[in-house]
Amino acid sequence: MQGIYLNKKYQCNENVSKLKFRDDQMLGIGMENGEIELVGMFCYDRIKNMKGHKSAINDLIFSLNFQYLYTCSRDFTIKIWNIWDGKCECTLDYHIDNITSICFYNLNDSNYLISSSYDGYVYFYDFNLNISTNKLELNEPVEYLTIFKNEYIVLSVKNIIKLYSIDKLEFVKDIIVSTKTIFYIGVFKNYLVEASLDMSVYFIDPFHKSSQGIKVVSIVNFPKLVKSVEIYNDLL
């Protein structure tokens, strides 16, 4: 796999802690001071700034209708923002430590917000019931989570990728590629994408030729430590 450098940039006023695309028209930027900026990709300029978190933004995701933004922070909270007026409409505080990542999941017409934390828990928040209905306990800090093929919940713990079945939360396998902490896991086509503190991004086939097979299909190396990685379509 190969890519090209677009030579486009946006200057933030604070240190960046997280990036997330809404679509090809908007980029969400989480700051270390807890602020969020929405940047138009058509003009590479700020559209909106939102304040409310007391510490760094670890993750952010946009609702499918683009009306809401969900953010999690080192202040132990998840906030739900109305994008149009820039205000926080709800704060979730069931974690007791740094919340590292969040993602959406749909099962049997129920919509869930899944979150991971340094408290060692992965929570499933049911939007229909407005309560946390299930959880996975790991007893060690979870750095990041994502959903793979709508069948597996993928977690990073230190330098290990852990796969669980999402329906029964049963352990499937561990994947070890890097020797350093994994701070991001994403999905590109049929591959898992792992970003590590070893200054590399790995594209991994987690079931190469068999359920236990693993293959690194590509590696992107950076000259300096990368703080945030995000994939949207074919853009890294």
Automatic annotation (TrEMBL):
Gene Ontology CC terms, in alphabetical order: nucleolus
Short name of any one Pfam family annotated for the protein: WD40
UniProt keyword annotations, A-Z: Nucleus, Repeat, WD repeat
Subcellular locations according to the entry: Nucleus, Nucleolus
Nucleotide-binding found in the keyword field: no
Record bears the keyword Repeat: yes
UniProt WD repeat ranges: 50-83
GO biological process: positive regulation of transcription by RNA polymerase I; rRNA processing
InterPro entries, per the entry: WD40/YVTN_repeat-like_dom_sf, WD40_repeat_CS, WD40_repeat_dom_sf, WD40_rpt
Primary location: nucleus
Domain of life, source organism: Eukaryota
PANTHER family linked to this entry: U3 SMALL NUCLEOLAR RNA-ASSOCIATED PROTEIN 15 HOMOLOG, UTP15 U3 SMALL NUCLEOLAR RNA-ASSOCIATED PROTEIN 15 FAMILY MEMBER
Protein name: U3 small nucleolar RNA-associated protein 15, putative
UniProt organism field: Plasmodium malariae
Taxonomic lineage of the native organism: Eukaryota, Sar, Alveolata, Apicomplexa, Aconoidasida
